[in-house]
Write a structure and sequence with these properties.
This protein is 21% helix and 21% strand. The protein has one domain. The chain is of the alpha+beta class. The radius of gyration is 12 Å and the shape is globular. A hairpin with a 1-residue loop joins strand 3 and strand 4. Strands 1, 2, 3, 4 and 5 form a five-stranded antiparallel sheet that branches.
């Protein structure tokens, strides 16, 4: 489901308050490949077990937030991009 533009204008990173943009499908595929290999952790250091179908990323591309029916905008559920290879 596409993210509503008005919602995107309102949402921001809960840590840095950075603006967000839609996480592109090609990058979701790359991220999901690394999730399947158990190489991705949330900001709280717990392993990401479920692949993403949709996501948002901070404008500086430092953190990804998954969308599961609604954006999961919790500090602990951010996925830091620094841990991702080839990102």
């Amino acid at each position: 489901m596409p993210v509503d533009e008005k919602l995107l204008e309102i949402l921001c990173c809960p840590v840095t308050r950075a603006s967000l943009k839609v996480f592109p499908e090609n990058k979701i595929r790359k991220l999901n490949g690394q999730i399947r290999q158990n190489k991705v952790k949330y900001a709280d250091h717990k392993l990401v077990k479920e692949p993403l179908t949709e996501g948002l990323i901070t404008i500086d591309e430092q953190t990804v937030y998954r969308i599961d029916d609604y954006p999961r905008m919790l500090k602990e559920l951010g996925i830091p991009t620094g841990q991702l290879s080839g990102f």
